[in-house]
Write a structure and sequence with these properties.
Enzyme class: ligase
CATH class of the largest domain: Alpha Beta
GO molecular function, one term: acetate-CoA ligase activity
EC number: 6.2.1.1
Bound molecules: adenosine-5'-triphosphate, magnesium ion
Radius of gyration: 24 Å
Number of helices: 18
Keywords: Acetylation, ATP-binding, Ligase, Nucleotide-binding
Structural class: alpha/beta
Number of domains: 2
CATH architecture of the largest domain: 3-Layer(aba) Sandwich
InterPro entries: Ac_CoA_lig, ACAS_N, AMP-bd_C, AMP-bd_C_sf, AMP-binding_CS, AMP-dep_synth/lig_dom, ANL_N_sf
Strand order of the largest sheet: 5-4-19-18-20-21-22
Oligomer: single chain
């Protein structure tokens, strides 16, 4: 497979960027020629941000699974599409070739059909990270059903809310999932989520952990039985086929609920053609993917990162994607490095929170691990602090792997601002330059473009995007007005990201965090991320989270929750003062936290994001109204933090 649209030099980036803005129809129309269509488009782009209404490749017909699977079969049928590393390193690795993927996806599409699923139906997928999850997702896409993957760790209540919002009629799940030394009883959680549910007709259950489960007659069926039956239907004389449903370019491909770190989850809807182009284009360019490379994205498929960079991006590019069932710290904190060595991983894509947590274990887990296969490293999910960036660069990349800091959102479908590995320059803790087709703009509270730089040449503002890129969200499921309100109503004719950013004189962007995470201390606006960055620079600090709380004098005070490693002086008070000294040196006395609470963990969403909403409530003393904490990775830390409140 070749990628004629792969950018290989800074000059080419500049030229392509310019053309993408001057002539988006020509630019994306040319790129689209590299995909497989049942019918070509009438128009590349129609849009307005008022309603909003965005259409890419209107009139075109396709099926994304033909692009992710079928078109590779002739030349790459026996090449690995997915390498699956089980939770337990002693268990058998599974290598899924494109031929095998094709067969399983066809079979599962047939299973869905046998169970009454039709084009446009919503299928909720609640599974662990097993290859069958990929078959389920792609099986839905094959028959045109809308998949909605829910991370295999959300509570029954969260699932019930999402099932209701999506009006889902079908569920695919597992008896259980392995994560580290835990077994998570997925089917039992689904059973709880279904109490009182009136829409779900069928639940398909894959056996992974052999956990005893209840199976309701007429509603619950076993994956294995269904697949066996379907095998005879899709395979005749050794030839496997299940005709893919012909989809309109703008037909919805999936719904994905955002992590909910800021409130009620929104069902972000992505369409077929634009999403396919964008995930492929950004995968090939940001990671500079070369055929044969092993790409290891450590995210869960329950998050957009897994959708775009474990499944659709790599597979549409005929790539090899490593899928990992377990967690980075089990059986020990060297697990990622073992996987890199074992599977000769070339590209490693993970989150700053994972990097910081592994940093906390020191260098011991890296000793003796052969990481020489690594060529490119990436991060996503939150701003990466400089210390973590340098640790990643030095100890994982050994100073020879470009690091891509990819800024994007569930709503954007794929990377919007990022360097391209080794092609455009990196700048530690800066996401750097926009992808072709992405036009970022920084605005002030009134929506006026900020053009005035400070004495260091830096412009500061709220990050918006001026025009649609192919994978912009199309709506929020069942509530288009909510989509308009959330993203398109704050500033006229702009998509508002909710994030604040800096821009330097070279046009590089640095994301400073959510706009609502900006503190106003004695009239000074300070990003929580800036303060955290400074605290994290202090020796011994593993991770920190900063929130504001009402302060009589300053308006807002700074409350810091700090995870500390080894406290050499055994003196909390002295350590607090040491941290204040560090913050003073790094930012200045204005950013000194008023309170520092030492904690053993932070409340994080399943995607690794700190739930500041909860920390803010605790800091404000409103511990009685913490809201829904069921989406947390470890709800137990909340009790500990409440008890230790200063
Ligand atoms: P919700 O919108 O429900 O609160 P969420 O925003 O946490 O959830 P995601 O779409 O997974 O859900 O995360 C996108 C956000 O993550 C971005 O808006 C940004 O704040 C942050 N982010 C992602 N990547 C980066 C990055 N490379 N640098 C800085 N921030 C990032
Ligand atoms: Mg968000």
């Amino acid at each position: 497979m070749s990628y004629p649209y792969q950018i290989t030099s800074l000059e080419q980036y500049k030229a392509d960027y310019k053309r993408s803005v001057d002539d988006p129809d020509g630019f994306w129309g040319d790129i689209a020629e590299n995909f497989q269509w049942r019918k070509k488009w009438d128009k590349v782009l129609n849009w307005n941000f008022k309603e909003p209404k965005v259409e890419w490749f209107a009139g075109a017909k396709l099926n994304i699974t033909e692009n992710c699977i079928d078109r590779h079969l002739a030349t790459m049928g026996d090449k690995p599409a997915i390498i699956w590393e089980p939770n337990n390193p002693e268990d058998r690795v599974r290598i899924v070739t494109y031929n095998r993927l094709h067969k399983r996806v066809c079979q599962f599409a047939q299973v869905l059909k046998n169970n009454g699923v039709k084009k446009g139906d919503r299928v909720c997928i609640y599974m662990g990270m097993v290859p069958e999850l990929a078959y389920a997702v792609l099986g839905c896409a094959r028959i045109g059903a809308i998949h909605s993957v829910i991370f295999g760790g959300f509570s029954a209540q969260s699932i019930a809310d999402r099932l209701y919002d999506a009006q889902a009629e079908f569920i695919v799940t597992c008896d259980g999932a392995y994560r580290g030394n835990k077994d998570i009883p997925l089917k039992s959680v689904i059973d709880d989520a279904l109490i009182g549910n009136r829409t779900v007709k069928k639940v398909i259950v894959y056996t992974r952990t052999r956990t005893p489960v209840s199976m309701l007659k007429g509603r619950d069926v076993w994956w294995e039985d269904e697949m066996e039956h379907a095998e005879h239907q899709v395979e005749q004389n050794g030839v496997v086929s299940f005709p893919a449903e012909e989809m309109d370019a703008e037909d919805p491909l999936f719904i994905l609920y955002t992590s909910g770190s800021t409130g009620k989850p929104k069902g972000v809807v992505h369409s077929s053609a634009g999403y396919m182009l964008w995930t492929n284009y950004t995968f090939v360019n940001v990671f500079q993917y070369k055929p044969g490379d092993v790409h290891f994205c450590t995210a869960d498929i329950g998050w957009i990162t897994g959708h775009s960079y474990i499944l659709y991006g790599p597979l549409s590019a005929g790539g090899t994607s490593l899928m990992f069932e377990g967690i980075p710290t089990w059986p020990d904190a060297g697990r990622f490095w073992d996987i890199v060595e074992k599977h000769k991983v070339n590209i490693l894509y993970t989150a700053p929170t994972a990097i910081r947590s592994l940093m906390g274990f020191g260098l011991e887990p890296l000793k003796g691990k052969d990481l020489s296969s690594l060529k490119i490293l990436g991060t996503v999910g939150e701003p990466i602090n400089e210390e973590a960036w340098h640790w990643y660069d030095e100890h994982v990349g050994k100073g020879k792997c470009p690091i891509v800091d990819t800024w994007w959102q569930t709503e954007t479908g794929g990377c919007l601002i990022s360097n391209m590995a080794g092609v455009t320059p990196a700048k530690p803790s800066w996401a750097t330059l926009p992808m072709p087709g992405v036009q970022p703009i920084l605005v002030d509270e009134k929506g006026e473009e900020v053009t005035k730089a400070d004495e260091d040449g830096i412009i500061k503002g709220n990050l918006c995007i001026k025009a649609p890129w192919p994978a912009i969200l199309r709506t929020t499921y069942g509530d288009h007005e909510r989509c308009r309100q959330n993203y398109f109503a704050t500033y006229e004719n702009l998509y508002f990201t909710g994030d604040g950013a800096l821009k330097d004189a070279d046009g590089n962007f640095r994301i400073t965090g959510r706009v609502d995470d900006v503190l106003n201390v004695s009239g000074h606006r300070i990003g929580t991320a800036e303060v955290e960055n400074a605290i994290n620079m202090h020796a011994g600090v593993v991770e920190s989270a900063v929130v504001g709380y009402p302060h009589d004098v300053k308006g807002q005070g700074i409350y810091a929750y700090v995870i500390y490693g080894h406290m050499h002086n055994n003196d909390e008070e002295l350590t607090r003062k040491d941290i204040l000294q560090t913050v003073t040196r790094v930012i200045g006395p204005i950013a000194k936290p008023d309170k520092i609470q030492f904690v053993s963990g932070l409340p994080k969403t399943r995607s690794g994001k700190i739930m500041r909403r909860i920390l803010r409530k605790i800091a404000e003393g409103e511990t009685g109204s913490l809201g829904d904490t069921s989406t947390l990775l470890d709800p137990g830390v909340v009790d500990e933090i409440v008890k230790g409140k200063l």
